[in-house]
Every structure is written in C-alpha cells, then in structure tokens.
C-alpha cells in the first residue's frame, strides 16, 4: 500500500533540472517514484512521456524502472529511441556480442544516448530484460513524410512485414492536436495541403508502429509489464500511441505518466490546466531557450532541415 506520507506531502517547485515532482491529478496526491510504482504494479503497459534530453524526465524514468522491477521483475523496456530495423544490433549489445560504441553506431542510437538512455538500457542488460526497438524505420518515416502513404508499397518485404497492419490508423482528436501544434489552420481534410497531410501520416506511422511493437512484446513475453519511453506528444492526453494501443487491444490496461513544465512566473503549479495530460503528471523545470536571436534560430532550423533532405526516397 502507498505510504501515508503521500497524502500529506506538499508540492514544491523542482529545484534543479534533475528534479521531478510527481502528482496524481485525481487526488492532488504527491508521490515518490516508489509510491508511483506501487500504484502501477498491476498495469499492463506504463507509458512515460518525456521531453527529449531533459534530465528530470530521464532520471524519473530510471527510478521508476527500478522501482517497478523490485515489485514486478517480469519487465520489458520499449523505446521510441530505437527503430525496429535495428533490433538485431540492440540485441547484440544486450547479449554481449558487441560493445557500446559499436551498438550506438550500428543501431543508430540518438546523439544523447549516453547522457539520457544509457542507465535504462544498462539496467535492462544487467537484469537480462528484453529491450524493444519500438519506432518505425527513420528512412521510411522520412519518405512517407515526403511522398505520402503510397511510399510503403515500394519498401522491401523485410521491412513491410515488420510494419503494422493499418499503419495510418487515426483518431480525430490527435489530428486536431497535431495540426494545431504545427500551425495548420483547422480546415477540412480535402483542403489541407498535401505536404501537411504527408507529415501527419509520417507521425501516424510512428505511433501505430510503437503501439504494435508494444503488443508484440506482450505476446512474446506473456505476463510481463511493458515500460514504454516516448516523447510526450506521442502519449499525453491519452492520444497518439496510447489511443492507437487501446484501439488495437482494448483489454490491455495502460497508464500514462506525462511531464509538465513548472511555470516560472508562479509559485503554485496550475494543476487544473494539466489534469488531462496524464493519469499521473510530473513537474520539471523548463528547458533553457535554444535561441534568443531570431535570425540565428532561422538559419539553424534551415540547416537542420537541409540535412534531413540529403537522402533520396527513390
């Protein structure tokens, strides 16, 4: 049972970029990672959203991973941060066949792997737990974003067999949120630009793939709890991967843990505005601004985009 101290605790602002203040919105209860794990022990799939590269998110994920393992050692770690076409390379590392740098290079690990995800993968490796490369292949996602869903008809049979059936399954609320986030006007589908539609389909391919990979993991490891790590946009408000997971397997219990930036201009966090973001939320310090110079930001974004267009989709 949860500690009685949970009900008595006071929610305070995170003091460093490593801190996370966990709250159960339903009751305004402040929790430790261990108390959160006690509430999640019987959940089939625990989805922890993150702001990529935020140390508060990653430290919480690691603490929750170990707390859940102590209560329920049958655990699978599923990660957006690895693509399914690199599962073999990831497995090779987990099985001691290759070294870490080899895995990072061969599996296309994210640039912040060592700083953000190493502790989670190492814990799984030490405990001999499966780690699932849950995301869709990056090249396929990028080319769907350029050419649309029809691009999938030309991918290799090897990749096609690993992608989900109905890879562009959708929910209206997620479409609305996505279009608002990227600045699109709320127009009918038939007037939406093709480029915007293709970008959205690329997003759906990611979400459907992650949902399917989670369900495959449950099938391959019966009775195991799946801990899934993902960017918060894929999971908050129960949308994205979470909504598609529930559509594909309504019988599976899913809990969402979502990050919220603690406002810098108030002493008390606006709980009421964030209650719907997750079954549990955790407050973290805002990330520092990347740029203050608008022109420098524009050039940086342009450079990033140009790098992404170097590869062809023929």
UniProtKB/TrEMBL annotation:
<protein>
    <recommendedName>
        <fullName>Haem-binding uptake Tiki superfamily ChaN domain-containing protein</fullName>
    </recommendedName>
</protein>
<feature type="domain" description="Haem-binding uptake Tiki superfamily ChaN">
    <location>
        <begin position="36"/>
        <end position="244"/>
    </location>
</feature>
<dbReference type="InterPro" id="IPR007314">
    <property type="entry name" value="Cofac_haem-bd_dom"/>
</dbReference>
<dbReference type="Pfam" id="PF04187">
    <property type="entry name" value="Cofac_haem_bdg"/>
</dbReference>
